[in-house]
Amino acid sequence: MKKLVLSLMAVAAFGFTANAQEKEKPAFGFQENNVFVEGSFQISDMKVKPENGPDYKATVFQVSPKVGYMLNDKFAVGASLGFGKIGTDNEIFGGIFDEIDSDYIKTTYAGAFARYYFLELGKRFKTYTEVGIGYSQGIANADLGEFKATGIQAGVDLGFNYFVTENLAIAFNLGNVFSYSNYNLKFEGEKQGTVSTTNANLNIFDNFFDNAKFGLVYKF
Q: For residues 110-129, b (16+ Cβ closer than 10 Å) or e, as one string?
């Protein structure tokens, strides 16, 4: 009888330990009611030196933050923003955060998205598809005057997250599978017409690094 009691105690202790260890395992990925923030940042410069004429220089700055809420462990909805600036200077390379007196293009975006995590490649890789729609505006200032384009843009993206820790992941946006945009064009406040574009890109994996955008995700 004593041996039976000891055996039962040992089995119970083993089960408790195994259950505790299972709960202590890192939870890579998302669960219902999780909130996450995601963002990408880009800064680059281009320099052109023609045989005749002055050097041409341009700077590109872009930041794209997102906030999402998990409806369950697969579906998320959220809001996204975008800010960008392309500035040129034919004589002096101005700082990216300074006001550039010569030509520039500024872009802003505000929209919503819905994301579905449809495939797990191991415990850390979470693959998703995302549908987004929003309002976009671009302003180009040149010697001739100010050009403005405002309208909507929508698209379907593919991407995946790689969880470095339980809360922090690297984001890989592989590119647009489908995109649509419709813009109203104005020059110095007068309407010039509209531009609509539709693009279906089924070969985004042919040149991965031409399409991919990298960022960070933090899960709360």
A: ebebebebeeeeeebbbbbe
